[in-house]
Amino acid sequence: MILVVGSEKGGTGKTTISTNLAVMMAQNSEGGVLLVDSDPQGSAMEFNNVRDEEGHSPSMTCVKITGKSVASEIRKLSPKFDHVVIDVGGRDTAALRSAMVIADVLIVPFLPSQYDAWSLEHMDSLIEDAQGFNPDLAPLLVMNKVDTNPQIKLADEARKFVKDLKNLKMEDLRLANRVAFRRSAAEGQTVNELTKKDPKAAGELLRVYDEVMKNA
Length: 216
Description:
This protein is of the alpha/beta class. Helices cover 45% and strands 18% of the residues. Helix 2 (43-54) links the parallel strand 2 (33-38) and strand 3 (61-64).
């Protein structure tokens, strides 16, 4: 399966989602996982370097591929692995468009804010264009960094806006703004690998993982 995590909005937690899901796939596969860093910032590559240095298992293969060559390069590499996870930078780029052409599943993370909701309109159009070349592309919305205070209703307001989008459907997949996600990234681990686990963070991540694998 080829999973792409991308949007045209920066700061939505794409790398956190990409790396956590890539490790979970590696935990549940025998043929290995290829993590592709297509973001000029290179955060996914840094995560994998820390993971290797700390000796965490399972390990992954991580490569950096950017630009419009993403699709052609991944087609060459993907047969060697059970899964490919592509972390794409937060802009409408050649890498993002190229990745969507070969993806089985596209995760579009967004924050519960009006600015992020507005950005999804253009992303919805990009997906429609991509499905002209890749009709089997399954897009999933993941609301990220959701406030854990139930009195703050931003998440509910964002859901009302998203329901009018044509191609992006809200499956109520949410990741809360939890310390565990930041701590695990610094250690090259997923939230389900931490010695001191946050069961809520691990449960939220598992729900996203299960939805991805269901759509594979």
